[in-house]
Write a structure and sequence with these properties.
Layout (H helix, E strand, L loop, with lengths): L4 E7 L32 E5 L8 H4 L2 E3 L19 E5 L3 E5 L5 E4 L7 E4 L30 E8 L5 E4 L6 H8 L17 E8 L2 E7 L14 H4 L8 E7 L8 H15 L8 E6 L6 H19 L2 E4 L8 H14 L24 E4 L6 E5 L1 H8 L6 H13 L2 H7 L7 E4 L2 E4 L3
Parallel strand pairs: 1-3, 2-4, 9-11, 9-12, 12-13, 13-14, 16-17
Antiparallel strand pairs: 1-8, 2-7, 5-6, 5-8, 10-11, 15-16, 17-18
């Protein structure tokens, strides 16, 4: 199975502790402190590998740790820095925070390595703490703790054009005819279980990259069929080609199919509906003259006349009409914005939870049955938590429990039905 998602645990290295020691040499009875500094912990670094096209490696190994910094030593010896860990991902990989589901980093444009988690700072040795009144400090600074988290890796194909359509309408046959791709082709649903990429070469520097996006059926945006597994690959495309079975060889209504797929794309990502679209009415080779005229006229009336979407009658088997379609799509690609769709970061890892930040739980002074939770730590948590998602709300509830906030509310005498106010949010309290 094509691996385009993976959840992994990443941990940067802990900073090495500073050392406590004193110079001890013959004839130097009071040599003073000489504890060395600890080394810096290793970083977690992501880098794009153009030779990779799946996340299979991360399905088998799911935990990645950078090396800890070494403790400082005697005689002002500095501890060695921990080794970085470099994680290679295919182009188009998006890295998300597993807890909130928010985007941390999109590797679509990243040509240089990116440090996602920095290693902890090394602690200072006791030689740094000498003062006029403290000539022999017996303490040193501990190394900075390691940063760690779970992240979700999602591969979103980078292609100019996306092919969509119900199973068995001829997408794979079309792709094999117009590109160098060789997808599996058979007379049963869901033959294609992974996005197939191919290059359309029209000569004289004309052409584009095209992807066959499998599994889009009614309910795909809700996870029915294989749709949700592969809808993410349509998000970067500049142009969409709808392939329909104009001959209705399986009894489907081509007009209804197009409306269904457009609705699914819109539900998944409302921005997709703004992309230029083309309709390829396939399998015209099995239509008689009367059937051909009727079906194509109906499609053009519904989509060309009403929505301005061009309809091309084609046969993926014989090649009829394909050349005209490809040149039209080539022009649309040229007119589209040059930049690949890039997903903006939705979370700043520097905003992650800091257990040392304070917060306060109290009763509202002028409102009966209202309790207030506020403070820098609460503000930071709200900054990286998506409360509109089920996963984000589950994390929010866990945060309240793990940090003793629910316990403090109960100690203050909160009752079921009372209101908990957290800045701009209000919740009814129920056990």
């Amino acid at each position: 199975m094509f691996a385009d998602r993976a959840r992994i645990f990443i941990r940067a290295g802990k900073g090495g502790d500073g050392h406590v020691s004193f110079r001890r040499e013959k004839y130097v009875p009071d040599g003073g402190p000489d504890g060395g500094d600890g080394g810096k912990g290793g970083d977690v670094i992501f880098v794009v590998d153009e030779g990779m096209n799946t996340l299979t490696n991360y399905r088998h190994v799911t935990k990645y740790r950078a090396e800890d910094g070494e403790q400082g030593g005697k005689k002002n010896c500095h501890g060695s820095n921990g080794a970085d860990i470099i994680l290679k991902v295919p182009p188009g990989t998006v890295i998300k925070d597993s807890e909130s589901g928010k985007v941390i980093l999109d590797m679509a444009y990243k040509n240089e390595p990116v440090v996602l988690l920095s290693g902890g700072r090394g602690g200072k040795g006791n030689r740094h703490y000498v003062t006029s009144t403290m000539q022999a400090p017996k303490y040193a600074q501990p190394g900075q703790p390691a940063k760690e988290m779970y992240v979700d890796l999602e591969l979103k194909c980078i292609a100019d054009v996306g092919l969509v359509g119900f199973p068995s309408v001829g997408k794979s046959t079309f792709l094999s005819r117009v590109t160098n791709a060789r997808p599996k082709i058979a007379a049963y649903h869901f033959t294609t279980l992974s996005p197939n990429l191919g290059v359309v070469d029209l000569g004289d520097k004309n052409g584009f990259v095209i992807a066959d996006i499998p599994g889009i059926i009614e309910g795909a945006s809700d996870g029915i069929g294989l749709g949700l597994e592969f809808l993410r690959h349509i998000e970067r495309t500049k142009v969409i080609i709808h392939i329909v079975d104009a001959a209705s060889t399986e009894g489907r209504d081509p007009i209804n199919d197009i409306h269904i797929i457009n609705d699914e794309l819109k539900k998944y990502n409302k921005n997709i509906e703004d992309r230029p679209q083309v309709i390829a009415a396939n399998k015209i080779d099995v239509l008689d003259d009367m059937g051909y005229e009727t079906v194509i006229e109906m499609l053009k009336e519904e989509f060309e006349d009403k929505e301005g979407i061009k309809v091309f009658p084609i046969s993926a088997v014989s090649g009829k009409g394909i050349k005209e379609l490809l040149w039209y799509v080539n022009d649309l690609v040229k007119q589209a914005p040059k930049q690949i769709v890039e997903f903006e970061p939705e979370i700043d890892l520097s905003m992650k939870d800091d257990p040392e930040l304070p917060f306060e739980v109290k009763k509202a002074e002028d409102e009966e049955g209202v309790f207030i939770v506020e403070g820098p730590r609460i503000e930071r948590m709200l900054g990286y938590t998506n409360l509109d998602s089920e996963k984000g709300f589950d994390f929010f509830q866990k945060f309240l429990k793990d940090n003793g906030i629910l316990k403090q509310l109960e100690d203050l005498g909160i009752n079921e039905g009372d209101t908990v106010r957290i800045y701009f949010l209000e919740f009814d309290y129920y056990k």
